[in-house]
């Protein structure tokens, strides 16, 4: 294990609300990276999007962060980070990755310089790699004209790398071959297969809740209780 490259997984998204599928992404990605024999996953970060993202039916960020915290009570390696949600405006994904990369650099013990003063050049081998974790549906959005800046796509895949978990109805290999940028840096894209197909979506959860239907076993019980206590996703607020 000592020779393995340490990795932190970062997932960005609405998490509106967080579902068991979101949590499974991390578990599947970690297993996949460990099976390569090259990596050791040290932690995972969930970063809920800012309210200014403007998505329809988007619950307030403090609710989405709180639900993620409740969902992660049973995880000993994934945490929610509110930084992105607390910014004054919507923050592009690449900037969120830069922020967390800088946080990782800043958390390392500094070396003693020749004059016994602290230096700001930590051993690069001690810095965990930060990889962008997503589902195949997100990889597909890289093809949507105007949605992502090409320079941002390149920085994400070249500097950080991507761990993409397969999803029914999607062809991640096809998305890579159809993109010159992704094809060029495909060595930095890890495609993880979800052995148990899981089509749970937050959209379905919101619709089911709006109709008063059960979502038990699709999202954590603590999240269901939170949604009920705060009257979230109900059509008439009752």
Structure description:
- Residues 114-122 have low confidence and may be disordered.
- A six-stranded parallel sheet has the order 3-2-1-4-5-6, sandwiched between helices.
- It contains nine helices and six strands.
- The chain is α/β, with parallel strands linked by helices and 238 residues long.
- It has helices spanning 20-35, 61-71, 93-106, 136-141, 150-160, 172-177, 180-184, 202-210, 221-229; strands at residues 5-13, 39-48, 78-80, 129-135, 162-165, 189-192.
- The protein is globular.
Can I get a quick summary?
It is built from nine helices and six strands. It has 238 residues and is an alpha/beta fold.
Share in β-strands: 15-25%
Mean pLDDT, all residues: 91
Q: Uncertain segments of ≥5 residues (pLDDT<50)? A: 114-122
Q: Tell me about the biggest sheet?
A: 6 strands, parallel
How are the strands of the largest sheet arranged? 3-2-1-4-5-6
Number of H- or I-type helical stretches:
9
Helix content: 25-40%
Secondary-structure element series: EHEHEHEHHEHHEHH
Number of strands: 6
The secondary structure category is: alpha/beta
The separation of the N and C termini measures 52 Å
Net shape? globular
Radius of gyration: 19 Å
What structural keywords apply?
238 residues; alpha/beta; 6-stranded parallel β-sheet; 9 helices; 6 strands; 16% strand
Secondary structure blueprint with pairings:
Blueprint: E1 5-13, H1 20-35, E2 39-48, H2 61-71, E3 78-80, H3 93-106, E4 129-135, H4 136-141, H5 150-160, E5 162-165, H6 172-177, H7 180-184, E6 189-192, H8 202-210, H9 221-229
Parallel strand pairs: 1-2, 1-4, 2-3, 4-5, 5-6
